[in-house]
Design goal:
This protein has a nine-stranded mixed beta sheet, with helices on both faces. A five-stranded parallel beta sheet has the order 4-3-5-6-7, sandwiched between helices. Among the domains are: about 35-175, Rossmann fold (3-Layer(aba) Sandwich); about 410-490, 2-Layer Sandwich (GMP Synthetase, Chain A, domain 3), CATH 3.30.300. The protein is globular and about 70 Å long. β5, α5 (about 115-125) and β6 (about 130-135) form a beta-alpha-beta unit. It is built from 16 helices and 27 strands. The mean pLDDT is about 95. With about 500 residues, the protein is α/β, with parallel strands linked by helices.
Amino acid sequence: MLFHTIPEILSYAKENYGADDAIRWKKSKNEIESRTYSELKDDTDSFANAIEKLGKKGQHIAVIGPSSYEWIVSYLAITESGSVAVPIDASLPAADICELLDRADVRLLIFDEARLDVAEAAAKSCHDINVYVSMNSAEHCPQVLSFNGLIDDNRGSYEPAVAEDALCTIMFTSGTTGKSKGVMLTQNNLAENATCLDMKIAPHTVILSVLPIHHAYCLSMDILKGISLGSVICINDSIMRMAKNIQLFAPDMILMVPLMIETFARKLEEVRAAGLPAEPVRKKIFGERLNTICSGGAYLNPDYVDLFAEFGITILQGYGMTECSPVISTNLSWDIRKNSVGKLMPNCEAKTVDGELLVRGTSVMQGYYKMPKETEETLSDGWLHTGDLGYVDEDGYIYLTGRRKNLIITKNGENVSPEELENTLSVNHLIKEIIVRESEGVIEAEIFPDSEYAQNAGIADIRAALQVLIDEYNVNVPAYKRIYSLKVRESEFEKTASRKIKRS
């Protein structure tokens, strides 16, 4: 069913799935706590009442912290009250967060005690914020209000009156290549993107939410789409405990980024090489029920689709960006094209201009908050310049070849996509992470090797082994695509919260 506002999604879910579990999370090591769809709606209504009573209706309200029931209720209540939600990356330094709060004109900050330092820093430097709400405090304090206290003080229904074209969210980009930008998304942008495609996901499907909750992919596909379908959304409390949480929550579906999938892929390849039976291994690694992994955010080796299929897991590769709410295309379980990032969403159209992919549709943002120049550079007559190189085939499937901003132009005028080279080389297990760039007039590969793999494979001289891989690659490509410089890293590349490598 297609929706145009977030309150419509929540009301529909309560009406149709009221007594069913909506959110589950770990209360202790092996104890699960849950809230039903009726409880989720009631808590959201009560917190929306609190926002209005505090005089913050229609204002910009930030929420920061790890994934939690309180975070979800906060976001839903902000959007239900007709205010503007500003989700913040909880992994950023306090000073950087304060800069984002100022840029987004935030007036109220809802925070998890894990980032108490942010609240303290904001109290000193963000003078426009005059209300602070703690997700964890049991009681109101003179300077900080209690999330649960506000809900208890304002129990009652809330009748939302939000327009579908109203600004709903300012969501900051990850800033992989420069200053992050505040993407302005309306109620309809988010609601329609989450609900316009029927992926044949049954009600009560158990979804384990493992991505950062402030990220558009998690917020739209885990939370909003999950709620619209009556799914059971389970909160993963730590990436380090994801394997244990898979066994605890027994999910049917997980959204991941490629780096996560690669970790599991290495285990599966070891299992396959050892000749162990697939079914017992699948249950041990993925639990009793997992059958689907949705992937997005970066390139995924298409061979992994076949690898996971051997163990009864379907991988659905998709493509999107925050500026498009965020999903632009996705593969579907009944029509997978391994080398494609999927078929265009029903509310999107795309074209290629000078090799760059342009997208238009109801999911496309309104612009960047208080950044008119950047908005003008990105939006043209309703078309969003994605910055990605690629094309759309006659069936509406998208194929990506690289990023325009990262394009290397050689001395001979040849265009080289670094992503193409990175994807070709990264299939080797010795290469854990790689960036290809231009350096001093030649193409350079900077590699973070997999030292554990090297040890298990008996590789003593990692640099020499990497150079052999580069030499073998160079033999099979034209001269202008050859790599002439190798740099070996001793530590991982710096990454965004969504596990994308930051390019310098």
